[in-house]
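User: Before I run my own analysis I want an independent prediction to cross-check against. Here's the chain; please return only the structure tokens and, at the end, one sentence I can use as a sanity check.
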Amino acid sequence: MIANYSGSLRYDMFGRKRKKQKTVKKKNPTILSFQEYVPAYSWYDPVIERQKYPSAAITSVHIPGQDTSYKREVSAQYTIAPAYNKGAYQVISRNDIEHIGK
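Assistant: Structure tokens:
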């Protein structure tokens, strides 16, 4: 049997009565003129903060005349390679190079 649901919208398709929906009244918005926001008390003033806490002077990190030649001499004694078949890369001394991958 095919039901005819072209009746009232107050009942759903199973015959139950639907709840009455509440209507919300829309309020008319009032147009306000633009006013700049001025805080009553401002605890932060950037000019005063800069005077109290000045920035550090710009300096170079590199110190000229520093000798770094010893780093090349030490790194020449080692190599980087996978120590085993699928292992991670490791620092290996020149004496153990013949055993890499075994």
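Sanity check: Residues 10 and 22 are 14 Å apart (CA to CA).
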